[in-house]
Fold this sequence. Notes:
- This protein is an alpha+beta fold.
- The protein has helices at about 5-20, 25-35, 40-50, 70-80, 90-100, 105-115, 210-240, 255-280, 285-310, 325-335, 340-350; strands at about 120-125, 140, 145-155, 160-165, 170-175, 180-185, 190-205, 245, 245-250.
- The longest helix has about 30 residues, at about 210-240.
- The radius of gyration is 20 Å and the shape is globular.
Amino acid sequence: MAALNDEQTMLRDMVREWADNESPVTAFRQMRNAAPAEGYDPTAWATMAEMGLAGIVIPEEFGGTAFGYLSLGLVLEQLGRNLAASPLASTSAAASAIVLGGSADDKAKWLPKIATGEVVATLAIDEGPNHDPTKVTTSVTDGKLSGTKAFVAEGDSAGLFIVSATDGLYLVDAAAGGVTRSTRKMADARSHAEVAFNAAPATKLDVGTQAIIDRATAASCAEMLGLAVRAFETTNDYLKTRVQFGQVLSTFQALQHRMAKMFTELELMRSVVEGALEAIDSGRSDVDQAVCLAKAVASETSRLVSREMVQLHGGIGMTDEYDAGFYIKRAAVLETMWGSASYHRERFARLNGY
Length: 354
């Protein structure tokens, strides 16, 4: 477990209290039923921005707090516990691309707007159903970008896109024209859009594509950690109260073994996820390997715990009236986002010369 300073502890506790009181799973259910075009509650997002959450990875000179990726991970973990829908992960990764590779004018124009929540930004990387940043056909000619990106998270509402092309990352203002969105419905009821760029004005960023993808991947791992921990806690509480065959379910040794396995896997998951976030903050040379390890473990553990949540709740776990289905659906989407466990195991092997 990462050693948190006083500011990080206060931030974590503040966000957890807000999420439990103002954005519980019932709020996600209401959002799902209302099906807003944004894929999240704009009022809740405005509140998060007022709390300073939108500017966690943005320097203070541009209206952010510069708390870093471990702090961002703490926030996403707490939001993930309640499946709180927000564009925070996507916006933070996109903001990092501008911080690391944008010109002085780009930073002055966009970072303050992102920090206040005025602009939602996101990454547009993959062009197929599976994550593979090497398969890119999007190109730029005379400052105009053309190509199509599949399943762009927060693509329905983003005002700013960080787009991968054959020669690197580009910044695209949706309001400048040349951007067409097509909503894609997925199991988690969140925003996923296919975005087509047709001669859209674009500005080159001086930062590597993979460095930004790694940041987005680490952020998704933090959300998966919160999701998995809450799924485990909810299941554990249920087993302690549900009576079957005249006995409380938690007294059955077979179920105790299953819960013990999940607990140990969650501890390992927390270690590698926080390790990846700390690696980003400290600028370590092995960020890529740390992120691979985190995503592989996070994908497998969140799948295990969310499926066990459904199974151990029995019949009610299969119903829409119960929350277990929300957790397994979001876990399935996050598992494939930015590469599956098998993708990152293979990448980790390649990085180590195998």
